[in-house]
Design brief:
The chain is mostly beta strands and about 350 residues long. The protein has one domain: Porin. It is built from three helices and 19 strands. A hairpin with a 4-residue loop joins strand 17 and strand 18. It is globular.
Length: about 350
């Protein structure tokens, strides 16, 4: 009985923002709100993560029976900027899971040249130069419900609202809605998930003369888990697709060799219809192996970027520490987190 009013509300919300200018990269900084667990696996854990942060669908939320509080920190490109993230997820009711996330991005020592001018020789006058720090505050609240279809098959569905505040140094505000579903097949240990980001178009307001929106993204993920008692371990292998709507801007590169034997890299944008091989070349693949329920090893690769990490579980897995290292063309990146479950 609530289906038609909900569809009408979403339609009105989307139409209200339909005339606002948009682009592929309006919300690109959302990827910074990733946990070290996901970063080490190159974001491939769409179908097996807790669902509390943006790398996992909120359809995952009702599958964890524990409350978990987590604090994470990441330093990017020789600490040129950093992110901090506090996350809570829990299951207050038997079939319903919820989560809250507060994230902060800090970019210090940015040179402000807006009040400066160019002299006759084309050099920047330094009389009006100043420094400032940019920041972003990110808030996410999610809820998901589980449906047990059979003793071995369960379905989860959820949604999450994202609110953002930017300072660059002008102030901007944004809001968006994500949704997702997950199917868990217990006997083969397979999880399949679908995530829709910016379901109603992520909307960012800077001032009366400039607003923008980001396009929706559709991703699919699959994960497989199996225990190996004879070597006291549990293996997880995961895959997450690129945006199936091809709304991420540059998503492929071509390489050409010049007459001087130099390799020239040319970025490009393709749809999956034009280039189905993007599912393989731009997909995210990762693995996680847990030994004695205590030590965890992770690795992953996505878009030619390689990551790895490790974790340590303490006090009968109630507490844990996680670390991730990501190789990048600009500079290496690291992430740390600590969590407690009860």
């Amino acid at each position: 009985m609530y289906c038609k009013p909900l569809m009408l509300l979403v339609g009105i919300f989307s139409y209200g923002f339909s005339t606002v200018s948009g682009g592929y990269y309006a919300n690109v900084s959302e990827a910074l709100m990733a946990t070290p667990i996901s970063a080490a696996m190159a974001g491939s854990d769409l179908s097996v993560s807790s669902g509390a942060s943006v790398e996992g669908t909120p359809g995952n939320l009702p599958f964890d029976s524990l409350n978990r509080l987590s604090l994470a920190y990441a330093g990017y490109f020789h600490n040129s900027f950093s992110t901090s993230m506090l996350t809570w997820s829990g299951k207050p009711w038997s079939a319903i899971g919820t989560s809250l996330l507060v994230g902060y991005v800090h970019i210090p020592d940015i040179l402000d040249t807006r009040e400066s001018s160019i002299n006759e020789s084309g050099e920047l006058k330094e009389t009006h130069l100043s420094m400032y720090s940019a920041s972003k505050v990110f808030f996410r609240a999610g809820i998901g419900r589980r449906f047990n279809l059979t003793p071995d098959i369960a379905l989860g569905a959820g949604a999450a609202v994202n609110a953002k505040r930017f300072r660059l140094p002008d102030l901007g505000y944004g809001i968006s809605l994500d949704a997702g579903i997950k199917s868990l097949f217990s006997k083969p240990g397979i999880a399949v998930a679908i995530q829709v980001e910016n379901l109603t178009s992520s909307y960012i307001y800077w001032n009366e003369s400039f607003q923008e929106r980001s396009f929706p993204h559709l991703r699919a993920g699959i994960g497989w888990e199996r225990a190996f008692p004879y070597i006291y371990g549990v293996l997880r292998v995961c895959y997450a697709s690129p945006d199936l709507l091809a709304n991420e801007g540059i998503n492929d590169y071509t390489f050409e060799t010049t007459d001087n034997n130099n390799t020239v890299e040319t970025p490009g944008h393709y749809t999956l219809y034009e280039k189905p091989s993007l599912l393989a070349t731009q997909g995210r693949i990762g693995a996680e192996y847990t030994v004695f329920k205590t030590v965890v090893f992770r690795t992953g690769i996505a878009n030619r970027k390689f990551g790895f990490g490790a974790g340590l579980r303490l006090w009968k897995q109630q507490a844990g520490l996680d670390f991730a290292y990501i190789a990048h063309d600009l500079a290496e990146t690291y992430q740390l987190s600590a969590h407690y479950s009860w």
